[in-house]
Amino acid sequence: MTGTGPSRAVPAGPAGGSPSGSRFSTAMLDDLLNNPLDPGYRLAFQDRQAAEHGPAGGPPPAGRRWWDGPLLWLACLAVGLLLVVAYQQQHQSAPAREAARKDLIDRIERLQQTGDSLDDRAKVLASEVAGLRDAQLPGNSEELKRLELASGALPATGPGVRIELDEPPAPTPAATGRPGTTPQEQVAVLHDRDIRAVVNQLWAAGAEAVAVNGLRLTATSFIRFAGESVLVDFQPISAPYTIEAIGNRNALLVAFADSPIARQLKTMAAVDGITFRFTGKSGLRLQSVTVAQPHYAGLGPATSGQSPSPSASESPR
Amino acid sequence: MIAAIALVIGVVLGIVLRPTVPLWLEPYLPIAVVAALDAVFGGIRARLDGIFVAKVFVVSFVSNVLVAALIVFMGDKLGVGGQLSTAVVVVLGIRIFGNAAAIRRHLFRA
Q1: CA distance A82 to B64
Q2: What Å distances lie between residue A285 and A97, A155, A160, A217, CA to CA?
Q3: Is A207 helix (H, G, I), strand (E, B) or coil?
Q4: Nearest-CA neighbor of A108 among A95, A100, A192, A93?
């Protein structure tokens, strides 16, 4: 501080200052609006003037010190540096982050495309193999076709049911104040266990082929949860979920409508607002998948007279 | 005058050196900029009013930036997050506007 002149007690200059002391409620706002200048300037200036015009022989003029210039210089340097650094931070780190994100998305999409094309090629090769095999083994072909249909290696068509599940609609940001503040439990109600329960119920009701979001289920398929998404055979799927099953349409509908999971989903539709529909369909078509070949499991010696039972691949998982 | 030159030199230094900001400092930058702008506008206005004192400018600049950073830090720790820094931006914004209006009156007599 630059000395303590007598003017220290003088209130802020004529331009500033609160208009009157009586209006306490708005005094602070008034001060803020009418007197935006730091009061320190006026005080320090008055101090300096008092010191300069003070009585001779008093303390030397305290207004200007030798460090004022360099200090001001440094502060301005700092202001300029701060502005530029903040600007660069905002406008360079954001694109970099965006670019990295885009690159990752590109790579994921490219790998997915590669995976899809490899899958297609595998299907073509499998059908070629099947054709060659049929040509070699004409006798057994009907039985093989039946087993392949049951295991998911052949596309299946036929009547069945379609069950549609969807998450509740996301609440509008206006309702919650800010986007992204809705609790996760309100927008992601459906879990892997709901879909698994539906699928198991369909198998139990006699479905012969089941697919979730177009992914055909086989004897070794799984439905589980990873992070926030449902995985079916390691492929992430997201809402809306469509579960299709081929079988006796009426039997499937009746058995499913009467099941605990259907009741539970109906309750969730009423309480949480999920979408839940199930309808009978006359012509469903389910894609085939590449069925994993058993590497370790072998045919054991037939204990009774019957041939190795194919029902394992048809039974509920 | 030297202030303007120093400002330009600071900008050039920032462009040339491209200092990297440590990650923990990043959230404080925007509010520090607003605080610095408030100090700068206050300084310009005081200069035009003829009552500029370098020490007040430097102290107000440093303390503005520090207090702004402190408020952001406190907001983070208290869990109110952005709201507290919104208050800072509103108050400093009003002051910047007021000072800018005073500067305008000085420069254009309007």
Answers
A1: 13
A2: 43, 7, 10, 13
A3: coil
A4: A100
**Is A257 in CB contact (< 8 Å) with chain B?**
no
Q: How far is CA A170 from the centre of its chain?
A: 13
- Predicted TM-score (pTM) above 0.80: no
Q: What is the CATH number of domain A155-286?
A: 3.30.70.1880
B10 with A77: Cβ contact below 8 A: yes
Residue A3 distance to chain B (closest CA, Å): 13
**CA angle in degrees (0–180, nearest 5) for A241-A174-A179:** 60
Which of the 8 DSSP states describes residue B27?
A: G
Amino acid at A250: N
Asked whether the beta carbons of residue A40 and residue B2 sit closer than 8 angstroms, the reply is no
**Backbone dihedral angles phi then psi of residue A61, each to the nearest 5 degrees:** -55, 120
Q: What is the pLDDT of residue A35?
A: 75
pLDDT in tens, chain B (110 residues): 677 888 888 888 888 887 777 778 877 888 888 888 888 888 888 888 888 888 888 888 888 888 888 888 888 888 776 778 888 888 888 888 888 888 888 888 86
Task: Report ipTM for this prediction.
Answer: 0.82
